[in-house]
Amino acid sequence: MQFPSLLFTMVNNKAFISFVLLGASLVVNVLAQQSSQDNVLETSTKLKWTDCYTQLQCARLQVPLNYSDPDGGTASIAVIRFPSPLAGTDDYKGPILFNPGGPGGSGVQMIADGGAAFSELLGANFDIVSFDPRGVGFSTPRVSFFDTEAQRQFFGSFDVINATSDGLARIWARAQITGALAARHNQHNVLEHFNTENTARDMLRIVEAHGQRNIQYWGFSYGTVLGATFASLFPDRISRLVLDGVVDAEDYYATLWSKNLLDADKTLQIFFDDCFKGGPDLCPFYEPSPQAISRKLDDLTRATFLRPVPVLTGISYGLVDYARLQMSIFQSLWSPYALFPQLAQGLADLINGNGTTLYQIMEQPLFDCSCGTPTPPTIIADGGIAISCTDGQEVRDTVDELELYLQGLLRDSQWGEGMAKARKETFPSHPILWIGNTADPATPIAGARKMAQGFPGSVVLAQDSPGHCSIAAPSVCTSKFVRAYFMNGTLPDEGVVCPVDGPIFTGQSVGAADPSVRRALGVDEKDGDIVQALARLRRSFRVPLPF
């Protein structure tokens, strides 16, 4: 699908472009006041677990703010785990550490939502552990470029490059403001300590605090950069490393973000193809051919650009305009099995003037400015911005230079404008399991194949599916390989491609499919727990967008 004049972009209302594109002198404000959740738990050099959420345990681990000055300031890392019921027995196999991506994604939230499902997927032998990286979420010091959440919300907006003639220049100008706000809040000069290398060192401290020497780790998206960095720093401290939805780390550290979208258009094509295969009973946006469905979306995009649709739901209100439509489509590319059916219904409704279903793909409750002592939110974009830009090479594009960069991205994908704002070395280690989907809209499988070349003995496992990271689609095949790798270190043969367990638009679950179909897919009766765990993870876990 091509939009001749309505090309997509979205700029996060936390102004990610401010730093990635301009290389501004980033600085942070360390919030003096911490949330009530922060104060409940004692920060210690040991993991002192306290019951939290449901069936989970939380702790705060003290680490050096600057590993070159270990006796200087400290950071407090919020850690969470779904504990293994087999701890203390011969069957216990230690912790598996997770990172949800981003950068800036909350590992605490990830395990709060999906810890039990990950335990079911991998086996009760492991503690399922994650953390909020330094500068992010419940970890402190916390990065913020604003005095209050109200300021952040009121400054925020979605800017669309081609919605107005000055769209690109407006994005550049807003970046100048955000850079100035960051400079104004530089109270403690700690930005240089918020980076992937230090987060990797924090992970080693978490592993050691569990009484282990070597890491077991499953990282998604940006979490693959974190995992590869750990492998580079500590090649002799690896037991198991699964890197899923692989980012080209060289491209990331060069602040290019130029290789992410190579398969994005392929992912959207799968929506057209599978909607056609599903038929009008299963796909409400159906037309007699994939090409006709594509043209239908083109027409709807143009109509929405000219006439936004108002929406009022039970928790919020707003417009389905050009930007909202495009963001919702792009979001659905990350989780096709979870969101393509809703996208199809939303697009069909939108043609008839009803934008509610489409709007709800990315709906959040309206911001409420409360009085009294503010409680910092679990997730804000500022921490991820700081990590990305501290990691990357400095960029100071002018508006004209930014236009040239954008045109280069658009040659790879129609979604290039969205990634425009998101502007190493290799070392031997224990064999790593790299996983890539054949149609990943954000981390093409080429990134996994490139990265694996630098780590001898590693294997790339391909999953024949759309979506971002393997758990975006149901594949018992992939899940079995991951479990076997964590259990006993077994790697799949090179060249293995795992199928998914059913089509996107279907009236049947895998468990209800014909037994011969299940056998052909490698799914049998005893895999029911894996199927259910994968379904729960698709509902609860979303890899964060990098902007």
TrEMBL record:
Transmembrane segments: none
InterPro entries: AB_hydrolase_1, AB_hydrolase_fold, Pept_S33_TAP-like_C, Serine_prot/Carboxylest_S33
GO terms of molecular function: hydrolase activity
Sequence ranges assigned to domain AB hydrolase-1 in this UniProt record: 95-269
A Pfam entry, by short name: Abhydrolase_1
Domain (Peptidase S33 tripeptidyl aminopeptidase-like C-terminal): residue spans on this chain: 429-498
Signal peptide: 1-32
Keyword Protein biosynthesis tagged: no
Domain of life: Eukaryota
Swiss-Prot/TrEMBL keywords: Hydrolase, Signal
Keyword Transcription annotated: no
Family stated for the protein in its record: Belongs to the peptidase S33 family.
PANTHER family in the cross-refs: 2-SUCCINYL-6-HYDROXY-2,4-CYCLOHEXADIENE-1-CARBOXYLATE SYNTHASE, AB HYDROLASE-1 DOMAIN-CONTAINING PROTEIN-RELATED
Protein name in the entry: Uncharacterized protein
